[in-house]
Amino acid sequence: MSQTVRIRAARPDEAEQLSALALRSKAHWGYDEAFLAACVAELTLRAEEVARRRTAVAEAPDGRLVGLATLEGRPPRGELGLMFVDPDAIGGGVGRLLFDHVREAARAAGFTRFGWAADPNAVPFYEAMGGRRVGSVPSGSLPGRVLPLMELELRGR
C-alpha cells in the first residue's frame, strides 16, 4: 500500500475525520470502551490546531485518509504529538512513510531531536524507525498509566 499513498499537509476541514481515525487506530490494540473513552480528548484534533501542529496525512489513491502524524514544538527539540495509521492500513508501510516524513520535516524546520510518549504496542515500530526509549511519562488520558518515552536524535542526511 505504501507505494501508492501520498503524504500531504492536512486541511482544517479534515480534523474530525482524523480524530476518528486516531481512535480507530487506538482501538486496534484491543483496548476496552472505557479506556478509549478516556482517550478521546487527547486524541481529538481541532480544525484550528491542524496547521500549528504541523499535521500531515497519508492519503490513499481513492482519497481515503489512512494515517496522520503531527510534529509539534519549536526547534531545537520537537514532539511527535499524534501518529496513527488506520487499522486497515497497519503493516502496509504507511507508518514508515509518515515517520520518514516527520523526520525530514523536523530536519528542514531546524529540529535536532524530537520525542514522544508511545503506546506500548508501538514501541517495536518506533525502535525499528531509529527511536530509542529514554524513560517513561504519565499518560495524558489515564491517571496511573505510564507510557514509554521515546526519542530520535536527528543527524545530518
Structure explained in plain terms:
- The chain has about 160 residues and is α+β, with helices and mostly antiparallel strands.
- About 30% of the residues lie in helices and about 30% in strands.
- It has a domain at about 5-110: Gcn5-related N-acetyltransferase (GNAT) (Aminopeptidase, 3-Layer(aba) Sandwich), CATH 3.40.630.
- It has a seven-stranded mixed β-sheet.
- The longest helix is centred in the middle third of the chain and has 15 residues, at about 95-110.
- The two termini are about 25 Å apart.
- InterPro entries: Acyl_CoA_acyltransferase (IPR016181), Bact_Acetyltransf (IPR050832), GNAT_dom (IPR000182).
CATH topology of one domain: Aminopeptidase
Strand line-up of the largest beta sheet = 1-2-3-4-5-7-6
**SS class:** alpha+beta
Unreliable residue stretches: none
Q: Quick check: average pLDDT?
A: 94
Helix content: 25-40%
Number of strands: 7
Elements, N to C (H/E): EHHEEEHEHEE
User: Strand count, sense and closure of the main sheet?
Assistant: 7 strands, mixed
Q: Which percent range describes the beta-strand content?
A: 25-35%
Q: How many angstroms separate the termini?
A: 26 Å
The whole-angstrom Rg is 15 Å
CATH architecture of one domain: 3-Layer(aba) Sandwich
Shape: globular
Contiguous helical run count: 4
> What's the CATH superfamily of one domain, by name?
Gcn5-related N-acetyltransferase (GNAT)
CATH class of one domain: Alpha Beta
